[in-house]
Amino acid sequence: MIHGEHPFAPDASQLDPVRRFRGRLTAPVAVVTSGSQDSMTGLTVSSLLVIEGDPGRVQLVVGPTSDLWDSIEATSRFVIHVCREPDRHVAEVFSGSRPSPGGVFAGLEITPSEWGPVIASLTTRAFCTLETADEMGWSGLVTARIDRVETEAFDDPLSYFRGRFRTIE
Q: Which of 5, 26, 93, 105 is least surrounded by CB atoms within 10 angstroms?
């Protein structure tokens, strides 16, 4: 490596201070999917909050100009898939940082559900129903009821910190 930093990254003084603060928080990595078999969409999301209760709820920060936002508003349903370290390539594809000829779902085993596409290899997931979707600044806040959860034990979660996918060690 020639440079210790990204050679085209803007000077820190030019970055939004709120974005810089958010970048210092470690976040989980999840792939959120929505839509029917004819119009599936998905996106890697790291800004999410799970709220325990009966029923449980989840809040996601999603771009209001994204296909995922449009699909969640249209169907009122989505699936959150938690990523592990071995799922890094899937998270990279759904984030747009890794090419995927044929689309983001190409090569993945997908099962349709009433909440949206289920990615077979991502086995910890929540099935959610939209309650509200509010635009806030450059982002949108999606609040949803968690209808069903499927979990599998693992100790190698994928996280997001300072613009990169990382493992917790």
A: 5
DSSP type of residue 11: P
- Token readout for 137 is 């600044």
Place of tokens 């939209």: 130
Cα distance between residue 20 and residue 75, in whole Å: 34
Instruction: Give the list of residues 6+ apart from residue 94 with CB closer than 8 angstroms, or none.
Output: 31, 42, 43, 44, 104
At a CB cut-off of 8 Å and minimum separation 6, what does 40 contact? 33, 34, 105, 110, 116, 117
Whether the CB-CB separation of 135 and 64 falls below 8 Å is answered with yes
What span, in angstroms and rounded, lies between the C-alpha atoms of 86 and 84?
6
Q: For residue range 120-132, what is the model confidence (pLDDT) as tens digits?
A: 999 999 999 999 9
pTM for this prediction: 0.88
